[in-house]
Design a protein that fits this description.
The protein is of the alpha+beta class. It contains 5 helices and 10 strands, in the order H-H-E-E-E-E-H-H-H-E-E-E-E-E-E. Strands 5, 6, 7, 8, 9 and 10 form a 6-stranded antiparallel sheet that branches. A two-stranded antiparallel ribbon has the order 1-2. Strands 3-4 form a two-stranded antiparallel sheet. The protein starts with 21 loop residues before the first helix and ends with a strand. Keywords: Membrane, Transmembrane, Transmembrane helix. Pfam families: DUF8175. It comes from Streptomyces dengpaensis.
């Protein structure tokens, strides 16, 4: 889901508009976020909202800068990870083998062909080196940042550097989202691949609003490193960008029920 949330404290950040609040960007609970997007109001309660992050099971390279430079790492896949990377076109539809998989109280899209193919506790990894693999990695990694085990996800599936350090600092101040309860597909309505090459991809999520026909959008960047896709936050730890209200599903690939 979205980033992890920060407590109110005395910083005054909860008095700022929601798009300026680090706690909103680092939070858990898609419906609350979408409600904010739909009505464009201030966040005035302490409920946590969606959290986010991208994934990779192999050790990260500390020499790789946060958002610039760097060749994106080696193409060498982790042991036992093999995917069909032949389809380099931006997807026009969801994979035929797409399904929802529970992650705590949320449901995340997964695919046997595009990933993740490996499940190691909270770290879901081994994605196809394709635009569709980048889409699925963006969903899974960001969603796992809300739950217990988020630190392992960050260490293994977030590009190292200033942005990762800032993400850890902010997320450490927040409580984990409960893992018990009925899983709900909630906010994930569709996606669009804004940009892609074999080194980096930017994926826009289409999120359902609190009432029928209302939607919000948010973009996430992932980078290919150490043989898998990893989340690439901004230097201040921000995972999501381009958050906005949208009028419908036009321009997005929708997830089939």
């Amino acid at each position: 889901m979205l980033n992890s949330g920060r407590s109110r404290g005395g910083s005054g950040e909860w008095e700022q508009p929601f798009w300026q609040q680090r706690g909103w960007i680092l939070s858990a609970g898609f419906l609350l976020v979408l409600l904010v997007l739909a009505v464009f109001t201030l966040v005035t309660d302490g409920n946590e909202e969606p959290a986010g992050a991208s994934a990779d099971p192999s050790p990260t390279s500390s020499a790789t800068p946060d958002r610039g430079g760097g060749g994106g790492g080696s193409d060498a896949r982790p042991a036992g990870c093999r995917t069909d990377d032949s389809d380099q076109a931006k997807p026009a539809k969801a994979p035929a083998d797409f399904r929802w998989k529970a992650d705590g109280t949320g449901l995340v899209p997964v695919s046997k062909s595009a990933g993740p193919l490996t499940y190691d506790g909270p770290v879901w990894s081994c994605y196809a080196h394709t635009p569709m693999g980048a889409v699925l990695a963006a969903h899974s990694i960001t969603d796992h940042l809300s739950y217990p085990g988020w630190r392992e996800v960050v260490e293994r599936q977030v590009v190292p550097g200033e942005g990762r350090d800032a993400l850890i600092a902010g997320r450490s101040q927040d409580e984990d989202k409960p893992t018990s309860g009925k899983a709900d597909a909630g906010g994930y309505a569709g996606f669009s691949v804004l940009s892609y090459d074999k080194e980096e991809a930017t994926v826009m999520f289409l999120l359902r609003g609190p009432s029928a026909g209302t939607y919000g959008s948010a973009s996430v960047t992932v980078r290919w490193q150490d043989g898998d896709w990893k989340l690439a936050p901004d230097t201040d730890g921000t995972v999501y960008s381009g958050m906005a209200q949208v009028s419908g599903t036009s321009g997005f690939v929708t997830w089939e029920a």
